[in-house]
Amino acid sequence: MKLAVVAANGKSGRLIVKEAVARGLDVTAVVRGENETEALHTLKKDIMDLTKEDLAGFDVVIDAFGIWDPNKMDQHSATLGHLSDILSGSKTRLLVVGGAGSLYVDKDHKTMISDLPDFSEAYLPTAVGMKNSLNALRKRDDVRWTYVSPAAEFIADGERTGKYILAGEEFTTNEKGESKISYADYTLAMVDEAVSGSHIHQRISVLGK
């Protein structure tokens, strides 16, 4: 399996590359600067400069792009839209490192976590930016996409337990009433999905046990 990880030098990107390489996948790190990952292959380009030819031949492209500047939240939609356009009509699957703010808290799927009055104002711009990019992705039936949301508490330096709970569109907690997952366990779920291709045209979510 040939796998490209876009924005591979980021926190989640590096761990995704590490997990995929450990499983023997043929991994290319797509980065703007020097490759800081364990990938043996490097494609040095900005996301917005990538072409259809650049990504031809990959089985899966994982979009690990993230930005926290509240003045640049439109880049979530712009970059994901560009990747979708250049993968349109191809067999290549597009997996997206998503956010938790767009998970629904009701069965009717009318209210998201980020709509709640006690949602952190500091995280609201990012949540809205990522929600907008997800909404745009839902309209694409020309791309074989899967959007993977983490739990509400996404722990960068958390341990890799090797276990996770796979959920769907709704906010979910484990038996302890917790909604949290380490980057390492999230990465495990992401690479599992890359290998299986079980949730095309779906948003899924993962949380720790």
Automatic annotation (TrEMBL):
GO terms for molecular function: oxidoreductase activity, acting on the CH-NH group of donors, NAD or NADP as acceptor. It holds the Pfam family NAD_binding_10. This is Dihydrodipicolinate reductase. Residues 8-192 form the NAD(P)-binding domain. It comes from Dialister hominis. It comes from the Bacteria.
